[in-house]
Task: structure prediction
Amino acid sequence: MKLEIDPDSELNLNLSDEVTVISLKKIDRGNRIEVDFDKASPLYLCLDLVYKFQLNKGVKLPYSKLRMILQEQQNFDAKQQALRYISARPYSEKEIRVKLSKKNYASQEIEVAIAFLKELDYLNDYRYFENLAQWLIEKKYYGRSRLSLELAKKGANKNIRDQICSKLFGEDTELDAARKLIEKKKETINRKDPSKQKTYIYNMLSRNGISSSVIRQVLEDYKFPNIDETF
Result:
């Protein structure tokens, strides 16, 4: 729930002016408290904030404090929203920022949420991108250049991309990926016109970021019928 103070109802309030709590009501199955004021818009607060600021009927507080309470609630909501995202599946920091921004959270609230996830060790870009990279190599058969491109799209900076590629790509990693991709696509390859099979294989591996030297090696090692072009 994204909270906002209605500016139209508080145009004449200065930060030093006092507002008075006139009622409190449980909502959202008791998880929130609707706090009504005499001169300000109602706030929908978590129980912790109600207790922290001792908001009871008749309590007076400066309008500046009311706005501070609102900000704390919005920080809390941003953290809870981020936690819901990360509990469903892993995300990169960039992805969490984008999703929170789409929920209209302010930059300061997003920073609070990001710091909260990092403090809990729920948000770790290197770990996230390393796991993603391993999956892309094993399931998508990506070579180094395609992998780096896909990680960049997800928000990985160059330092993280370089570290992960150096760690995951050994001498034969691209060669193994290329052979597995060809094996997976073997029926499709064999349905191609014999004169176009090598070109199809070359382009397929190239799109997956397999280096030219590895592609040439694979084409030399694999003996498909009726493939006689050279590159």
